[in-house]
């Protein structure tokens, strides 16, 4: 029988360091989360390095790792030791010239429950991800684990209701969004509140529209690794919300933290029974959604 209740966690961290130090740091934080009762634990996007997409530099491809190498080995052993599910977002080297922004979903026995490759790739000032990442080709997936059904999307995916919908329709009880999002320091005063508010509101909307739990794991800290540039101030504010968009746990903008909340599948079923959005979908009228524009 599946678990009717289980605890999930997101870990909010400053990751402006090298791969070896970030790995050690994240292992320690996952241990801490597990000691507090967390059963499914997510790290932020691209956990092993600073956010290198602030520039287009071929040297940064050296930060990537092949499948099932350093990150998988370390967190597979940790998941098995602790008996927890771990979501590990990493920079994947698939082959020469093809790289992905990916995430392992590692089950409690250390095996791979799933692999997700980021589908939506942004190209904005200081977020030059199209230079590095090939769009994902594995689609939107539910990953059954020994704790529950886990859907994993990544950062820019969080703006797309279609991604959340398809993942939920495949059976995901929780949508995890490992994230690296922040303010351009010179824009923060004028645009910052609205940018942060939109980010949070759109994911709360996915929770409501799909009757799912949503968990976003962001970075914190100013990452200014390029000289003579303002860098990015990652805004933290990681959160977990329930299937009506209700906030279950909320982090600060500037502290390293662990957020833990309970996934209650009886509550989820009750919400879906009373707000039957899936029942009332007019799938016969949605064909045009696959068009780029309806001219």
How does this model look, in words?
One of its GO terms (molecular function) is hydrolase activity. Residues 6-265 form the CN hydrolase domain. Keywords: Hydrolase. This is Carbon-nitrogen hydrolase. Pfam families: CN_hydrolase (PF00795). The protein is of the alpha/beta class. Helix content is 24%, strand content 29%. It contains five helices and 18 strands. It has helices at residues 19-35, 70-82, 161-169, 188-210, 265-274, and strands spanning 5-12, 40-42, 65-66, 85-95, 98-106, 112-117, 123-124, 127-128, 142-144, 149-152, 174-178, 182-183, 213-217, 220-223, 232-235, 239-241, 247-250, 257-264. The strands form four sheets. Strands 1, 2, 3, 4, 5, 6 and 18 form a seven-stranded mixed β-sheet that branches. Strand 3 (65-66), helix 2 and strand 4 (85-95) form a beta-alpha-beta unit. Helix 1 packs parallel to helix 2 and helix 3 runs parallel beside helix 4 (188-210). The longest helix is centred in the last third of the chain and has 23 residues, at 188-210. It starts with a strand and ends in a 21-residue tail after the last helix. The model has no long low-confidence stretch (mean pLDDT 97).
């Amino acid at each position: 029988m599946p678990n009717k209740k289980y605890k999930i966690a997101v870990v909010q961290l400053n990751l402006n360091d090298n791969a070896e130090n970030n790995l050690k740091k994240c292992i320690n934080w996952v241990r801490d989360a597990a000691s507090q009762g967390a059963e499914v634990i997510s790290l932020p996007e691209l956990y092993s390095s600073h956010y290198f997409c602030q520039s287009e530099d071929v040297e940064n491809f050296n930060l990537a790792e092949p499948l099932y190498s350093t990150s998988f080995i370390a967190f597979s052993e940790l998941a098995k030791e602790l008996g927890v599910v771990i979501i590990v977002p990493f920079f994947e080297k698939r082959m020469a010239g093809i790289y992905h922004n990916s995430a392992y979903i590692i089950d409690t026995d250390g095996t791979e429950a799933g692999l997700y490759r980021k589908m939506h790739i942004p190209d904005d000032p200081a977020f030059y991800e199209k230079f590095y990442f090939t769009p994902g080709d594995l689609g939107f997936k539910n990953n059954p684990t020994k704790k529950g059904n886990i859907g994993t999307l990544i950062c820019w995916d969080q703006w797309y209701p279609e991604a959340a919908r398809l993942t939920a329709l495949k059976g995901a009880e929780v949508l995890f969004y490992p994230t690296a999002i922040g303010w351009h320091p010179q824009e923060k005063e004028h645009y910052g509140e609205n940018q942060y508010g939109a980010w949070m509101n759109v994911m709360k909307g996915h929770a409501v529209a799909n009757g799912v739990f949503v968990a976003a794991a962001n970075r914190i800290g100013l990452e200014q690794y390029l000289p003579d540039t303002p860098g990015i101030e990652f805004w933290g504010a990681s959160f977990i919300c329930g299937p009506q968009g209700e906030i279950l746990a909320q982090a600060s903008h500037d502290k390293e933290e662990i957020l833990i909340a309970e996934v209650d599948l009886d509550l989820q079923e009750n919400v879906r029974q009373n707000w039957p959005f899936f029942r009332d979908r007019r799938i016969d009228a949605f064909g045009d959604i696959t068009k780029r524009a309806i001219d």
